[in-house]
């Protein structure tokens, strides 16, 4: 069995790993593998965006719904922000990370 090859990120050519002893074990134990956590890919992106955007969007909505007076807009924004933070905390609390299923 030959020495494992990889694509060089600079030249896009196949070359040998400099730290590889050519043991033939696949996958290579010296190579980093992507973490398979409870949240990865689109789930991680959607949950992160939702937790971040909920307070911002509810603060904007509170400002718009409060009316034209600046005092009421401030109160609406703070109320919407507080509600958004509460929603984000509730989502984070009800959606705890769990270990991935291992076959």
What would your notes on this structure say?
This protein has 103 residues and is mainly alpha-helical. The protein has a domain at 42-94. It is 49% helix and 6% strand. The chain contains two helices and two strands. The protein has helices at 42-66, 70-94, and strands at 5-7, 14-16. A two-stranded antiparallel ribbon has the order 1-2. Helix 1 packs antiparallel against helix 2. The chain is rod-shaped, with a radius of gyration of 24 Å.
Write the layout of secondary structure elements.
Layout: E1 5-7, E2 14-16, H1 42-66, H2 70-94
Antiparallel strand pairs: 1-2
Helix pairs in contact: 1-2
Structural descriptors:
two-stranded antiparallel ribbon, single chain, 103 residues, 2 helices, 49% helix, 2 strands
Q: What is the structure about, briefly put?
A:
The chain has helices at residues 42-66, 70-94; strands at 5-7, 14-16. By secondary structure, it is mostly helical.
Q: Beta-strand percentage?
A: 5-15%
Number of helices: 2
Low-pLDDT parts are: none
Helix content bin: 40-55%
Shape: rod-shaped
* H-E order: EEHH
**Largest sheet, described in full?**
2 strands, antiparallel
Distance between the termini: 29 Å
Structural class: mainly alpha
């Amino acid at each position: 069995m030959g020495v494992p090859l990889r694509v060089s990120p600079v030249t896009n050519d196949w070359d040998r790993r400099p730290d590889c002893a050519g043991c033939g074990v696949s996958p290579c134990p010296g190579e980093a593998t992507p973490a398979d956590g409870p949240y990865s890919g689109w789930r991680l992106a959607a949950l992160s965006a939702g937790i971040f955007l909920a307070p911002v969007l509810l603060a904007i909505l509170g400002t718009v719904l409060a009316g034209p007076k600046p005092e009421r807009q401030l109160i609406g924004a703070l109320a919407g922000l507080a509600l958004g933070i509460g929603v984000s905390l509730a989502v984070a609390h009800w959606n705890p990370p769990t270990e991935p299923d291992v076959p």
